Structure formats: structure tokens, C-alpha cells
Amino acid sequence: MPPRSKVYELPAEVRDQLNEKLVSSGFQDYTGLAEWLESNGYKISRSSVARYGSDLQQEFEEAMGDVRKTTELARALTAEQEDESGALLDATARIVQDQLLRISIAMRKAEEDPAKAAKQLGSVTKALADIGRVSLSQKKWARELRVEVAAEAAAAAEGAMASQGMSRDAIDAIKRDILGIA
Question: What InterPro entries does the annotation carry (predicted)?
Fold first, then answer.
């Protein structure tokens, strides 16, 4: 296993600035970034910055690809239907859960301080719990909506069948079928 990159030893604020500079420069000018780090008191070679930048670029491109796919999925779902079942929210929640799991794995790899990693993991866990609550609430709402729609359909069918002279037993049987009652 190769030694851990010295970039991960940088304070979080400096590493965040480096990440911003890498993204805004289009993942170029590693010599300039190594010089910038050195001017701030951190001696990290150009090749270390380049390896770190290459890994970050790959993660960035994967994340942007996921965003594009999600955006296209959302457009397709909303164009086809009004999404009363919450399929869009469910798909979004799954994507966010996947990203949070990736983040937690990356944090474990990058963080040397167990207390800091545990605190960050706590934030990720809270976000996952929040997504779970939103997803459950959406599913509960969708289930309640289906019951309400079925009740309205049963009432409308009952009125129509009664006006056509159907027997009460036949009406009740059809109504039970609509409502899903055995």
C-alpha cells in the first residue's frame, strides 16, 4: 500500500482552499499550486499535488456525472407524470444516501484523528437519518393518498351502479374490490 499523501496532513481549511483552486483551475498548474502551498508554509512536492489532484478530479467527474444523470432522471420523471407516488423524491434520497456513504468511506481514509472522524461521521449519520424520515413520510403520504383516491372512486362507482339498478350485494362486492377489502 503506498504511503499516505502529504496533502491529507494539511489542515482542513488549507486542503479546502487547495480543492477550490484545483477545481477552478481545471485541475491544472500543479507547479503553481505546490508553490502556493510552500508560500503558506507547507512543503509538498508537485507530484504529490498532481496525484492528489488526479484523484480529486476523478471523484469530481464522477460526482458531476451523477448530478447530470439525476437531473435528466428528474426531467424525465416530471415530464411523464406529476410524480404523486414520490418516485423522484425516492430516487433522489437513494442517490444522496449513496453519496453520503461514499463521503463516510472517504473520511475514514483521509482522517487520522479518530475523534474528528467520529464527529464527521456523526454528521453523515444524522443526514442519513433525516433522509430516511423524509422517505418514510413521503411513502406514508402516498399510501394515504391511494386510500383516499380509492374511497372517492368507490363512492363514485357506488352512485353510478345504484343509478343503473344494480343490487346492493353486487355494489358492495365491487366496492370491496375497489377498496381492496377481502
Answer: Phage_Mu_Gp27
Q: What is the CA radius of gyration of the chain?
A: 27
Predicted TM-score (pTM) above 0.85: no
CA torsion angle 109 10 20 102 (round to 10): 10
CA angle 69/73/75 to nearest 5° reads 120
CA 87/CA 82 separation, integer angstroms: 10
Q: Parse the chain into domains and list their residue ranges.
A: 1-56
Exposure of 49 by Cβ count < 10 A (0-12 exposed, 13-18 middle, 19+ buried)?
Answer: buried
d(CA 115, CA 44): 26
Length of the chain: 182
How many other C-beta atoms can be found within 10 angstroms of the C-beta atom of residue 100?
16
Per residue in 49-107, pLDDT (tens digit) is: 999 888 888 888 887 777 777 767 766 765 665 555 566 666 666 777 677 667 666 66
Phi-psi region of 165 (alpha: psi -120 to 50; beta: other; left: phi over 0): left
**Whole-angstrom Cα distance, residue 173 to residue 182?**
9
